[in-house]
Amino acid sequence: MKKKQLFAGALAAAMMTASLAGCGGAASSAATSTTGGDTAGSTASADTNSGVVEVTIPSYKTGENAGAAFFVPQVERFNEKYAGKYKINLESVPQDSIFNDRLKQLAQQNKLPVLVEGGDPDWVKNVVIPNGLAYDLTDWIDATPAIKDVLIDDSREYCSNEDGRVMTMPLATVRPIGFFYNSDMWSTDADISAMSMDEFVSALGDQKIAFSTAENGWVSALFLTALVAEEDGGVEWLKSGTETKITDFNQPCFINAVAKLQNLLQNNAASNSVGAAYADAANAFMSEQAAIIANGPWMSSDFESSNSDKWSNGFDGAKVRASLFPGDIGIADTATFGEWWISASAPEDEIALAKAFLEFIYSPAELEAYMLAEGGDTPKLTYSDDFKAKQGETQVLADLAADTTTDTVFVPRILDVIPASVANTEFGKQLPEPGADSTLTEPPCSSAISFTSGSPRPLREFSLREASACQKRCHILSCSSGAMPMPSSRTVSFILPSAARRSVSHMLPPSLP
Question: Cα–Cα distances in Å, from 214 out to 99, 310, 482, 495, 507?
Answer without folding.
Answer: 17, 21, 24, 9, 14
